[in-house]
């Protein structure tokens, strides 16, 4: 086949062959350290929170492709939680390879550079592809951190609850967590506040390492059974 040479040829080739175009929703801009810290905290906290669940996937800054027929459409949420899918090492989240799954909740941390128009567009895309809940964290809002919990309705999202004070947190029942605004973001679950990113990240690292070791043990056992003439799938 002759390689595509024009932009139109490339677009046609991508659509016909299902090529994954890793093109972000917007031009990347440098992240403020606070933005990155909050994203990391929420990701690590949610990973630890759902550690005992085999049917919940939590991803940080992972490209989500909602349409197989048009892989040029891509969403890049800060954190997404997909209930009903296992936690795997994914390069991207392709809906057609995940039984049509849609993120149950998107968590977005609004950066200093974001405009209202940017987020209206991003929320519009999330709503179009069936995301039922969105949590917005505004760490740079006047007066301190501002938290919004949005629920999807027919015409778009409505604000279910907000928080600007640690004394009045937003409950997110789908996730089983509470988020509060104020001088800083406060995130907690039934075990208490998520104090720091480092300890949560270490907890997730230990869980990942233990899962890897268990997988290796299972592989060795299966190999030993095959060597003994036993089909491990028959046990």
TrEMBL record:
Residues 28-176 form the Putative restriction endonuclease domain. It comes from the Bacteria. InterPro entries: Nuclease_put_TT1808 (IPR012296), Restrct_endonuc-II-like (IPR011335), Uma2 (IPR008538). Pfam families: Uma2. SUPFAM superfamilies: Restriction endonuclease-like. This is Putative restriction endonuclease domain-containing protein.
């Amino acid at each position: 086949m002759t390689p595509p040479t024009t932009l139109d040829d490339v677009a046609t080739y991508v659509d016909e062959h299902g090529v994954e175009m890793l093109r972000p929703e917007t031009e990347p801009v440098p992240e403020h350290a606070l933005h990155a810290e909050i994203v990391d905290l929420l990701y690590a906290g949610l990973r630890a929170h759902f550690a005992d669940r085999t049917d919940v996937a939590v991803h940080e800054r992972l490209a989500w492709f909602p349409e197989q027929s048009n892989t040029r459409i891509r969403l890049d949420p800060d954190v997404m939680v997909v209930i009903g899918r296992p936690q795997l090492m994914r390069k991207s989240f392709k809906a057609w390879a995940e039984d049509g799954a849609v993120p149950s909740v998107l968590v977005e941390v609004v950066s200093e550079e974001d405009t209202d128009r940017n987020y209206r567009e991003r929320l519009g895309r999330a709503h179009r592809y069936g995301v039922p809940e969105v949590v917005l964290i505004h760490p740079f809002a006047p007066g301190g951190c501002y938290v919004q919990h949005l629920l999807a309705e027919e015409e778009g999202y409505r604000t279910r609850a907000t928080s600007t004070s640690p004394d009045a947190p937003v409950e997110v029942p789908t996730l089983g967590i509470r988020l509060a605004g104020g001088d800083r973001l406060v995130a907690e679950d039934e075990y208490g506040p998520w104090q720091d990113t480092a300890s949560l990240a270490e907890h997730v690292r230990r869980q990942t390492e233990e899962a890897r070791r268990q997988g290796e043990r299972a592989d060795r056992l299966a190999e030993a059974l095959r060597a003994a003439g036993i089909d491990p799938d028959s046990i």
